[in-house]
Write a structure and sequence with these properties.
Blueprint (H helix, E strand, L loop, with lengths): L3 E10 L10 E2 L6 H11 L5 E10 L5 E9 L8 H4 L15 E22 L13 H13 L8 E2 L1 E5 L1 E4 L14 E11 L7 E10 L2 E3 L10
């Protein structure tokens, strides 16, 4: 099993606490699901599944409260009448009339080193190529991450908070994580999409020891 390391950083981040609905309040550090999404933004294929082993926090945790404008409704999807060219309700809405001011507790100037590996799922692959193998996807990920390529812009919790990343190589000099030990309590681990009719959230007890959080599913207990 090959492990990969990415260093990610950005000016802003918001890993929204699942128990808070209206006001955005971020966890103190990146969640495993957000870390997985960064790897999937670089390389996602039906034949692989990413797993986050551990998270290293490279910069002190800094928070900032801001107030920003948000839209309080979702755009309507086209109906059969729209697709057939008939008369139907308007798809658009007045953004100014639906604007709401909401406060948010965000993270400022963040940097993490993410350790991950991918599980090869040949039985789930959709392409019937004879060269399907873990080595193929490992080389593909290494090339894309080294060149800064991605399928969509990686982000830190919310799509408006884009993140930068770089592939960490074995010969690189690594900056140590912050010297902080802290128990963050219950944190969102991931979402279980096994049954599309019932998406189940998973949680774990996030404990940081000298700047490192162990998120390996084989070593931590995950609760539903």
């Amino acid at each position: 099993m090959q492990s990969w390391m990415l260093e990610v950083w950005g000016d802003w981040a918001c890993f929204t606490r699942a128990e808070l609905k209206v006001e955005r309040v971020s966890y103190d550090v990146i969640t495993p699901s957000s870390a997985r999404a960064i790897f999937e933004a670089i390389l996602w294929k039906p034949s692989i599944k990413w797993h986050i082993q551990k998270i290293e926090v490279l910069k002190p945790i800094k928070k900032m409260t801001i107030r920003r404008n948000e839209v309080g409704r979702v755009a309507t999807l086209p109906t059969d009448k729209h697709l057939q060219g008939g008369l139907a309700d308007s798809l658009g809405f007045d953004a100014a009339a639906n604007r709401q001011q909401r406060a948010g507790l965000l993270l400022r100037d963040v940097a993490y080193r993410l350790h991950a590996w991918f599980e090869f799922l040949p039985e789930d692959k959709q392409d019937n190529y004879s060269d399907e193998s873990p080595a193929k996807y490992a080389a593909m990920f290494a090339r894309r991450a080294e060149n800064g390529q991605y399928f969509h812009q990686p982000y830190l919790g919310c799509r408006e908070f884009a993140c930068h990343f770089r592939l960490v190589k074995p010969e690189d000099d690594l900056a140590p994580p912050i010297p902080l030990t802290k128990d963050f309590g219950w944190m969102l681990y991931d979402m279980d999409y096994t049954d599309p009719r019932m998406i189940i959230p998973e949680y774990f007890e996030a404990k940081m020891v000298n700047g490192t959080i162990n998120t390996d599913r084989r070593a931590v207990e995950v609760y539903r």
